[in-house]
Amino acid sequence: MKRTILLMFTAILTLSIISGCSKAEGDTKTNKSSNKVLERIEKNKVMRVSFEGTYPPFNFLDDDNNFQGFDVDISNEIGKRLDVDVEFIATNWDGLIGGLKADKFDIIIGQMTVTEERKKSVDFTDPYVITGSVLVTRNDTDDIKELEDISGKKVGVGGGTTFEEVARSVDGADVKLYKTVSDYLQDLSNQRLDVIINDQLLISYNIQEMDLPIKIASDILNKDEIAMAVNKGNEDFIIKVNEALAAMKEDGTYKEIYKKWFGTDPLEN
After folding, report:
1. Could you give the CA distance from residue 124 to residue 128 in angstroms, rounded to a whole number?
2. H helix and E strand count, the chain
3. Predicted model pTM
């Protein structure tokens, strides 16, 4: 059943969120226990997975307070192939890398874009999503179709995200920073913003689920590789996760999960 805008905004606002493929940073020190992650997982038979938990359709709480979403299904399938249970730990976006380095969880499976800056703090698995940012406007807007069109416009983005970087690359763009996707979706709908920039999969899902009066107005502006983050010094764990991911793609399980949430085949590298 489609959720109303009000219900979705209320649900999302109960939890803290920073949208999209954000540019989290952390120090370059590696937690001393980080090189024992696989050993601990195999011993305890539990893989601790973190994400925001407020980012549908990737990771969110359903009406029964259970985590659902693309990331959840991917995590559970990896756990199944590693023969371990999965424990989900919701964490604010800006605390994800810090929590990983503090050994509060074993892996981040939460729509984190691979960047050179993040590689200084964590290691990444192979990408498990290829996506990209797009311009989003109200249905009655016809003058914003290319990135340069946002000059002189009020542009909503998540603070500290790669979407912010894209917006600030245009001279004259009036960039407004938000902590939650729901806030700038609402401001766009209510004409307090002219355009927003976010992930094309997220926006497509929300337009369909919430029946929003908005549209994707551009082609993909930049391609993002989304991967799982692990503490440095855990190459053996990364190999195991990559093997599980490759097997999922080989036997069709990955495509089934992808089509379940997005209704289309996944983009390729």
Report:
1. 10
2. 10, 13
3. 0.72
